[in-house]
Amino acid sequence: MNPRHDWLSRFAITRVHVSLLPASRWILPPIPAVTIRGALGNALMDAVCIHRDDPICLSCRLVDTCPIPGWYDPGLVASQKIRPFVIQVDQAPGSLLTRESPLRFDVFFFGSIPKPGLLLEAIDILAGHGLGEDRIPHIVEAVWVHGVGGQSLVMERGRVLGSWPHPSVLGSFTDLPSQVEGARLQIVTPLRLKHLSEKRPPSIADLLRSMVGRTRAVARMLDLEINRWWPEPHTVSGRWEWRDFRRQSRWSSRQGSRVDLSGWTGIAFLDETVADFADLLASAEYLHIGAKTSTGLGRVLVDFLA
Fold first, then answer.
1. Mean pLDDT value of segment 241-265
2. Which residue(s) pair with 150 in the sheet?
3. Which candidate in 148, 173, 274, 299 could, as Cys together with 270 as Cys, close a disulfide (CB 3.0–4.6 Å)?
4. Please, which contacts does 5-8 make with residues 24 or more away whose CB atoms are closer than 8 Å?
5. Which residues contact 304 (CB under 8 A, 6 or more apart)?
6. CA distances from 296 to 155, 169, 286 (A)
7. Is the Cβ–Cβ distance between 109 and 168 less than 8 Å?
8. Are 282 and 174 a contacting pair, CB within 8 Å?
């Protein structure tokens, strides 16, 4: 490994892959990761919150050990609002889900997973409560965990099967070519940055600058030191094949209003000047960039041209 990329081998990450069998057919919503994250939060609340009907996290005597502000929503009790996970759904919005074509999604946890048994309980509650507007119940077909040594089946048909492996590292998920001649970068889900708007699309430098900021922010959360400095983003040349501002929102029952989830999607081609950013691009596939990353926004896919 390139010595400048050694931080990838020190960045702890665990992939939890979940497969849920629906009791009846339903259509995957426009923003599936948002639906899953909300359902996961409700399931955690049902599992652990003693003030379920009127959460009062700041004054609760159990706040220091509660997983809700502990990792699911740190912003409830602290200024640090980075959630230590992202949710990815590879099935396209609008896909028909059936028992032959179940819902499958990944939760990537940064660092160690707090209380794995509680997470499995929450997944089981989530499935039983149902998903989608019609609250279609599901059965937990299986939960796999990708950690040190590969993938382990930890839950099947609601039965817990064994212990969880230790976290893997980001380097085990990335495959960096020895020589990079360029890259194709696709923004799959809407990218939200403070200075962007429908009339102000992202530049190539915006993307790289956001990747640097996101990587360093997550590393600080994990107390991981990254002795790595990337060149100025404006030194990278490239072109956009297309950019599109996608308008979307969802109703939040907790906030009692609609939440704006609009942002930019598109495909950009970067030339050989992006070689010094190869590790950054590879990590962005799992960290995401921009705002609301835990809901699946800001997801990017990278194909290196070697």
1. 85
2. 147
3. 274
4. 5/171, 5/176, 5/228, 5/278, 5/279, 7/219, 7/224, 7/226, 7/227, 7/228, 7/279, 8/169, 8/170, 8/171, 8/174, 8/279, 8/282, 8/283
5. 176, 177, 180, 182, 183, 278, 281
6. 24, 20, 10
7. no
8. yes
| 305: Cα separation from own chain's centroid | 25
So where are the chain's domains?
Answer: 12-169, 174-305
Q: How far is Cα 36 from Cα 57, in angstroms, rounded to an integer? A: 22
Q: Distance (Å, rounded) from C-alpha 241 to C-alpha 178? A: 26
Given the structure tokens 């998903």, which residue do they identify? Answer: 131
Q: Which CATH number fits domain 174-305: 3.30.70.1900, 3.10.50.40, 3.30.540.10, 3.90.220.20?
A: 3.30.70.1900
Q: Is the pLDDT of residue 78 over 80?
A: no
Report residue 64: phi and psi, to 5°.
Answer: -70, -20
DSSP letter string over 230-271?
Answer: PPPGGG--EEEEEEEEEP-EEEETTTTEEEE--EEEEEEEE-
Tokens of 34: 């948002």
306 contacts 184 by C-beta, under 8 angstroms: no
Tell me the mean pLDDT in the region 109-128. 90
Dihedral angle of Cα 123, 27, 287, 174, to the nearest 10 degrees:
100
* Full-model pTM: 0.92
How many helices (H) and strands (E) are present in the chain, helices listed first?
A: 5, 15
Please answer whether residues 300 and 188 qualify as being in contact, where contact means their C-beta atoms are separated by less than 8 angstroms: yes
Q: How far is CA 237 from each of CA 157, 181, 208, 214, 261, rounded to the nearest angstrom?
A: 50, 12, 11, 21, 29
Torsional class of 119: left (φ above 0), alpha (ψ -120 to 50), beta (otherwise): alpha
Backbone angles phi, psi at 142, to 5 degrees: -165, 155
Percent of the chain at pLDDT > 90 equals 63
Asked if residue 1 has pLDDT above 70, the reply is no
